[in-house]
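Example record for the data management plan.
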Amino acid sequence: MNRDQKIVYLIPGSGGAFYCENCLRDRPLVRALRNAGAQVMIVPLYMPLFNDGERLEGEELLVCGAVSMSLRSKIPWLRRHAPFISRILDTHPFLKIAAHLSASTRSRGLEKMTLQMMSGSLLMQQEEKEHFHGLLDNYSPDTILLSNALLIGLGSDLVKRYPAARLVCFLQDEHTWLDSMRAPWRHTAWELLKSQSRMVDLFLPVSNYYRDYMLNRLPLAQEKLPVLYPAIDVPACPVTATVTSDAPVIGYLSRICEDGAPHKLVEAWLTLKKRYKNLRLRIGGGYNGDDRPYVLRLRRILAPHITTGEVELYPNITSSQRDSFFEGMTLLCVPQKEPTAFGYYLLEAMARGIPVVEPDIGAFSEIIGDTDRSGLLYTPQNVSALTDALDTLLGDPAYAQKLSEAARKRAGTNFSHNTAAEKLLTLVKPLHNKRRRVLEINDLHRSFKNRDGLVLADVLKGVSFKIDEGECVALCGPSGSGKTTLLMLCALLDRPDNGSVTFLRDDTAAWTAEQCDRFRATELGIVFQEHLLLPQLTLMENVLLPAMAPDMKKPDAQQKERAHELIDEVGLSARITHYPGELSTGERQRTAVARALINRPKLILADEPTGSLDSDNSITVLNLLKKLAKEHKSSLLMVTHEKEMASLMDRTIELLDGRIR
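Corresponding structural encoding:
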């Protein structure tokens, strides 16, 4: 039943350098979605995925490798030259080295690149961009799924390219990256996320805790944030817990870093060793370059115990090592310093019947549960409380066995990957039956005054209306009713005295002149009463002209291909090299229609587009404009004074004396 759902899943990989919860969450979800019948194309960004276990189809499609992207951010000439350098730097050996050396879980020093990433400008070379878009064009996604909100800029750009697609985004600990940015970039990043979040159809926080946290940081409605827990394939995880043993094992599995606080667990373990003589400690999860000094200090402390075999280190756990890491484990504990959105390592333990001990912060209480508890909570940042909680389980095997059984059951009931996949598909499906709000005009007032401030004309007096995706609306009214003024405000060529113009849920009042220019260049198509074609350009060149407007670059191969398709759709393929002077009036206006659609605009504004045509050509051009707007999922607002033309639209807004009648 889900085979009609085509999902593109954008995932920033970790390169396998450390314990990456996002990668571990995403991989089983992709498998489960495919098993449920959905088509899923995965696109790894920056780094390969966590190279762990059976490879997923699509893992090799790395886009915008981290090494070359970082260099292009710092060395501008690389953005335009030497694509072969990028291909070399983005091979797995280079990326694997970079993953281990980089401080890739902290944003300090990477603020500029983060903002570029969040705004959608990933510094892709033209060759990369064409390849990336080519993959997606052939696939035609209806859902674009983001692994985290730092990819929101790329996601926003993609839904502009694929208007029928819906944008869905996981939320998991993005605040840790954003809050570690230096001022003023930190504030800019949060404001950018707030602005871009309006483009997202659905956010998927990974816990109730993180949903509530992000509701306090972003201007979102709670119904837009249904919780979707990360999940695990419980049957694939053999029961490995050993709660009754003469040599109990305390485990730690997460990134080995100061925030994970394994040093606190070491302190508690050293205390408990005095009571439990054969008590062992097992630490795993990997680390990156930023963590190296901390890991070296921890190794020095543990060196004597590593030598005796009391402490085992798994610096980077592969799939083949996973079961041996958990084998015989009595309990798992990650004494996290700060609240966290989830904790996938807890699922890995619970699925194997291993009870957990965690600080009572963040989402841990949700994961561990209440009535079907799978572990113990203790007072955070308190080593004595941690030691007591560990002692409770180590000293009471019967209680530990009870929690062990509850842990396995809870993992299968609450965190099944099949259940998560079905819930995701259920949440996404209704989005495609709901049209996106493209334009919302609210209580617009506009008057014109003389130099002394006296009102010469009170043109608009509280105009409000809405236009949804794919909707074709006629704006009618007698001369002087305010139609042209209203159209100028919708195109952001003028500003209202009061009221708001909201485009795709984004209030344009705060937009800069540059943002308004980009809106007109990329999101807006305009068809004038007169065609306004440039006489010195051919039909093809006139159609391609808006494609050059955003950055004044030459049109790429895909833009040229789209121009050919549009020209064919308006029936002018045989006239492609002709100049405007060689075309009839109707042909010139059809060319103007193709030109308005070249950038896949969300909104088309048409100002009396048939005013210079005879009756037959008027109906032909208007039907063509409406047909193409529908097919390309563009909304159309057309000014006309002809009732016959207005009757061909979905509905009519009538303006009289500055008000909607």
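Summary line stored alongside the record: The mean pLDDT is 84.
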